[in-house]
């Protein structure tokens, strides 16, 4: 599924940077100034950008949520590369110990070069030690998903939502669902406004942890986005991208997500990006999805990982999670038939148990089932997926 996605215009990197700064200033007039550097500000001019699609310097040195976030600014090293770029240049890591040792070597070198203080160097190493990176997460076959964390992407029942939302939502609740993710645009969810549809969802006994909107909504109507999310009680708003984007477009979208993400965070909402398969097509050796992960601030921007679309292009979700722990609070749980088409969850080829074993590392909060081509109808397909997901052990 692809939501209304406005294709960003192409500009020079400097123009995009100025646009992002201006947007952030407009959205955040009262935002605090960014953390200062270790000592005097680094005024070295970068003559060459050695990491043009690397980790953003607007974030922190981050290895996961909470105690795995060092809090140390991810500083530019003077050549377009940042601290996180220097650390991941040491990859692959054989295990957690080798990861921590690599981080320690980089942090020690940065301290000697005056990029970080001794205290910051220790904070980086402690965060690495607390991170799950490099730690295997085996599937034991003894765990079940929490029922209150399972939901449905309402795209599955899009055929009946416009004409019979009450009956559709009631049927979903009756087969066990507790959460739903509606998608559309500001004040247009299956032909209804958010304030009109929200009580219908509530009356059915469902909660809405996230809503899907278009990139244009974020760019042009942030107040409407916030109002709609609050009407539903949603903590996440997510967008999808476009198969026509190039790397410059992904970089520009990342800057936009950082800016609007800061504004949304003030409202208690997190912006998320939902993938299809095209984000994983490499251009000049770089994937658009990597640009989004590296250039968005993990404290402001989340990822809604669609497991079907990742698998459809040969991407292993476990590898994504292992390198970017804590970035994936939302899963779209979709299965793939042997011929590559859509299948109800649990009736296809995707090894969900192996992926779910990494749930804690990923930071997953909600598992939202979906079938883009449900048979024989949306409700029957959705209830089938729910029953199979509840029976799954990982």
UniProtKB/TrEMBL annotation:
InterPro entries reported in the protein's UniProt record: IolE/XylAMocC-like (IPR050312), Xyl_isomerase-like_sf (IPR036237), Xyl_isomerase-like_TIM-brl (IPR013022)
The keyword Transport appears for this protein: no
Keyword annotations of the record: Isomerase, Signal
GO terms for MF: isomerase activity
Keyword presence, Chaperone: no
Residue ranges of domain Xylose isomerase-like TIM barrel in the record: 170-357
Protein name per UniProt: Sugar phosphate isomerase/epimerase
Signal peptide: 1-37
